[in-house]
Design goal:
With about 500 residues, the protein is α+β, with helices and mostly antiparallel strands. The protein has three domains: about 180 residues, ph1033 like fold (Roll), CATH 3.10.590; about 150 residues, no CATH class; about 110 residues, no CATH class. It is about 35% helix and about 15% strand. The protein has 20 helices and 17 strands. It is elongated, with a radius of gyration of 27 Å. The structure holds zinc ion (ZN).
Length: about 500
Amino acid sequence: MRDRERRDAGYRPQLVLQLRGGARVRGPEHYQHSIIRGVRLAQIAAELGPELPALQRLYPDGIARLWGSTPTQQVNNPKARALRERKAGDRVLFYADKVFYARARILHLFRNQAVAKRVWQTDDEGQTWEHIMALGAIEQLAHAVPAEPVLRQLGLPFPLRSLTLVDADGYDSILPFLPNVPGLGSSHGRTVRKRMGRKQFFRVLRQVLDESSDGSAPGIPLAMLWAVGRTAAAAEPSSHADTLTSLEAFLARHGGADEQSLLPPLIDSGLWGHKQAQEWEIDRFGFHGGRASSASDAATSDLSADVAGLLADVDMRGRAVAMLSRALTSNVDRAAVLAQVGLAGYDSAAGTLEPNLFTLTSPGNPAERQLVTIDRIVRSSRHAKAVKKLHDHRCQICGVRLETRDGYYSEAAHIRGLGKPHDGTDDLSNLLCLCPNHHTQFDFFALYIDEKFTVRRTSDDSRISALRRHPQHHIDQAHLRHHRRFCGLPK
Ligand SMILES: [Zn+2]
């Protein structure tokens, strides 16, 4: 917030060049711990004391991204100046092994020895990293930026030896070296990415999933589902993504994948946006007027704007979720994953009931929800009775009529389920008369009905039968199409 006020007041950000440090000072370990995984505010609440509310506002998910510097006895070396003169709103470039590999924005600065000791312990000399930056808009650069030309431009020694603050003019002068936003990048001769359409999205998604299916990035489908869940929550405010599940926590829970390794392929492919990068550069290019606040953007998803736009449509989401669910490794609890990211119901044509029927199974672990699907056997609505009567209880797929002591038994299946996210209607054009076996298969997307009313297997599109029809039973093609999308089919 403070940052935005500065920006509004015409504040021009400076740039902090931050050494990550090598193994001797546990740099890689610290980076992984307090930047990538983040620090739970709950665990340092006592040490934070009066800083706690400010950090809670900055990190609504309760996980802070912190980086610290040890104190210096000097008063006028570059490190002392940087510690003294850097401000919230300034940018940070992380440096290691002669490249800049990540960037971030300073949200808040504070000095707290107890927090530093708790998070990073002490170094060999008994010092701790007590000058702390609370960071936001953290972006692992998909392609690391060689540091030498940047430092030369700034008139600084290479390799970088110290925490260094670069003034706003200096920062402006090195912008051409940094990756920036597609579209805005043209000013530096970079290619402009074309808008991603529906076909291209599914092609790219398929490609990214295929490339990660060798086990190189098992978290890709998880990260995508997490992001699709955020988009679903934005498209449908009543949906119930667990807003407390950060991507890191979610990944750690389901496969131990590491966010840092997932971001480059997702960003390179264009599936995930440069939202954070945009946030970085927009104000530099004077594009900030009228933009939504970054905080609310970050809360919705990390998908690129094009992809988020496509997935605002429930049918497109259904198809994407079907592809992603299938790409999950077998040890993943699919229903639990979908429920946690607010996509419960996407794995059945019936959908789920409203969240008051989600039950907490373990009080210590609120994200662990039990999925409750709508009972497939529809209460005898007027339309359900009508469809069974029209077909005389014969299954529209196999023609079987189940005999019972008291007559025949069949089930009325909603093509587009009544539950979330389908929100189908209870009328004849949305119903089929099916035997219990085919009803189950239809609900769990084992089979679908094509435009010519041929019943086919989802696995290989092979024909099962022609759908048996009745002249007085009109079936809405739009409902069948919705069901096919959730099967993962293109149309
Ligand atoms: Zn049947």
